[in-house]
Write a structure and sequence with these properties.
By secondary structure, this protein is mostly beta strands. Helix content is 2%, strand content 65%. The radius of gyration is 24 Å and the shape is elongated.
């Protein structure tokens, strides 16, 4: 139109489409929408390095809208992000011979905003994995990190992570994670509430049972956290040995 340039194009065999409008006079207002259809993120970002894992791949579908004024340094940057689909495969390190591939998908559409400094997840991102479903909410920025995650994990599905140590595992655990600090120096506080977890060591008939208990991990790394530290604590955690014969299983309380 008059006084403006229309932007319209597509890339990656049509999987990434760009359309919008840029005014031709100051302050050069721009309004651009990018539609993505199964675009591989690992082609643009080293996801494995970012996640600290051996391998990581992801593809995303959704829409990104960017609005600002290019010639006005005080103009706000308004970026809205709507993700309709996300699939990823990451490799989790375990005690076996090789990392365990884990498939992750987005359980429902999610929205986020970006203002040039912080990326805010405005609605919980529900991630469905083979180990359970986890909801993530919070803010990620170069100078600030505040993410929380909650979910229920199926212990039986985590059995491949134990390599040859266990023949069987049953039960569930409630996971709560809070990540704060900065990207360069994150601090992770994680709590695992165990509910009637049973495991059977390899080539053994007896079961080890954890009726209930809590495992807490406080992991701070990077310059902002000082020298870096990792603390692990247990609350109300006990172990019982069930050999299938004894009427009173042997028990052991774990304290820190």
């Amino acid at each position: 139109g008059a006084g403006a340039v229309t932007i319209d194009g597509s890339f990656l065999d049509g999987r990434l489409a760009v359309r919008g409008r840029l005014t031709t006079t100051a302050p050069y207002r721009i309004d651009v929408t990018v539609d993505l259809s199964r675009v591989p993120l690992d082609g643009f970002v080293d996801l494995a390095k970012l996640a600290g894992m051996p391998t990581a791949r992801a593809a995303v579908s959704g829409r990104v809208r960017v609005r600002t004024a290019l010639a006005d340094p005080r103009a706000p940057l308004d970026v809205s992000i709507d993700v309709s689909d996300l699939t990823a495969t990451v490799a989790l390190p375990g005690v076996g011979d090789a990392p365990l591939p884990l498939d992750v998908r987005l359980g429902a559409p999610v929205s986020a905003t970006f203002d040039g400094h912080d990326l805010r997840i405005t609605s919980p991102a529900t991630l469905v994995t083979e180990l359970g479903t986890i909801a993530v909410l919070g803010t990620v920025g170069a100078g600030r990190l505040d993410l929380s995650a909650q979910g229920t994990l199926d212990v039986a599905r985590a059995l491949p992570l134990t390599g040859r140590l266990l023949d069987d595992a049953r039960g569930s655990a409630e996971l709560t994670v809070r990540v704060t600090g900065r990207l360069a120096a994150p601090r992770v506080n994680a709590t695992l509430d165990v509910a009637d977890v049973r495991v059977r060591p390899a080539r053994q008939e007896a079961w080890l049972r954890i009726p209930a208990g809590k495992l807490e991990i406080d992991d701070a790394t990077g310059q902002a956290a000082g020298p870096g530290r990792r603390a692990v604590s247990f609350t109300g955690l006990s172990l019982e040995v069930d050999d299938g014969y004894s009427t009173a299983p042997a028990s052991l309380a774990v304290v820190t």
